[in-house]
Amino acid sequence: MAEAKGGMKSDWLIASPPSRLERIEAHFQGHAYDMHRHDSFAIGLTLNGVQSFHYRRGYRHSLPGTVLVLHPDEPHDGHAGDARGFHYRMLYIEPALIQSALSGQPLPFVAGGLCREPRLASAVQALLATLDGALDPLEESDGIAELADALAANGDARRGSPKRVPDYVAAQRVRERLDAALADGVSLEELEALAGQPRWTLSRDFRALFGTSPYRYLTQRRLALARRQIAAGIGLAEAAHAAGFADQSHMTRAFGRTYGLSPARWRRLLGTR
Fold first, then answer.
1. What are the boundaries of the signal sequence (predicted)?
2. Which helix (DSSP H) or strand (DSSP E) does residue 86 occupy?
3. Quick check: helix, strand or coil at residue 19?
């Protein structure tokens, strides 16, 4: 890792204790992440510096106090906008948790990826106030509800609303089956039968409600488990096996596509600060 002035490592990352929300704080001096996409919302605050990234055919620059709202399945990267580097906090929240407060409505979309609206900023700040310990369960639930309402209030209603109302009950059955299928997998035919829908209808409804396809959802749940294992000190090969990947190479490829860095670099960053 490069050294910053005063001997402090310029690139570092800390993660909060495991919970329904993944929360991190990080600093990067230059390039941080390659282009990648994940199935969660990535919502955070720039604390210092300029946080620059490519997103939805544009090049964005987040300044201190700006809220970043990156929608599931949208490719993006990350790097410092100038020589000072950038410091930020971010939470990764499954669309299913937002859905629990939206009662089956399509996911809200905040156009442009950046927002300075006070209600949304306050909701994000409340969930990212500290990473020292796990959030109280009631505090976390209240925070998720307020975040969902703030996202809906700031969402762009013009963005591709489905022509039919998605079948939330069917999609939720499929999501629960995928959550239980990390180790052994599941066939598309089984999911069709479970939903009572043809695969194309199931895929459209699932994407509208949870932000990604059933296949990518399963892959991302496996990666989230692998990342928790790695953060706990488990070896890469063992973490890959525990999360249901065929081998370490399979996990490494998926990890890079989803998080924009390798599992080995993720592990090094956690131990840098």
1. none
2. strand 86-93
3. coil
CA dihedral 138, 96, 188, 226 (to 10 degrees): -60
- The domain locations on the chain are 5-154, 168-211, 216-270
pLDDT at res. 157: 53
Residue positions counted in the chain: 273
Torsion-angle region of residue 44: left (phi > 0), alpha (psi -120 to 50) or beta? beta
Could you count the other beta carbons within 10 Å of the beta carbon of residue 161?
10
Say if strands 22-28 and 12-15 run parallel, antiparallel, or are unpaired: antiparallel
Sign of CA dihedral 258, 20, 122, 107: positive
Neighbour count for residue 116 (Cβ, 10 Å)? 11
Q: pLDDT class for 272, splitting at 50, 70, 90?
A: low
Residue found by looking up tokens 């790695």 in the block? 230
Q: Cα 124 to chain center, whole Å? A: 14
Q: For 98, phi and psi rounded to 5 degrees?
A: -65, -40
User: What is the C-alpha to C-alpha distance for residues 73 and 254, in angstroms, rounded to an integer?
Assistant: 14
CA–CA distance, 184 with 180 (Å, rounded to integer): 9
Round to whole Å and give the CA distance between 93 and 146. 13
Superfamily of domain 216-270: Homeodomain-like (1.10.10.60)
Amino acid occupying residue 252: T
Banded pLDDT at 104 (limits 50, 70, 90)? confident
User: In the CATH scheme, what is the homologous superfamily, with its name and number, of domain 5-154?
Assistant: Jelly Rolls (2.60.120.10)
